[in-house]
Design a protein that fits this description.
Blueprint: E1 8-13, H1 17-28, E2 33-39, H2 45-52, E3 56-59
Parallel strand pairs: 1-2, 1-3
């Protein structure tokens, strides 16, 4: 291996679209992180994880 690792794949889950957009802007500036998808509520999480295969799910725990 050449010492270069793949970026961490992140799925963002939050019911507030402005929070998701803000997190996307922050994550996009970090070369070691790639935002692979987003979801607006907990019911979408399993489907989004299956579709995007993230390494990390960054999720608001206080959603409807």
């Amino acid at each position: 291996m050449d010492g270069v690792s793949a970026p961490v794949r992140v799925l963002v889950v939050d019911d507030d679209p402005l929070v998701r957009a803000g997190l996307a802007m922050i994550l996009d500036t970090t070369p070691d992180i790639t935002m692979v998808g987003e979801a607006a509520d907990g019911t979408e999480v399993a489907r989004a994880v299956d579709a995007h295969r993230p390494d990390v799910v960054l999720m608001d725990i206080r959603m409807p």
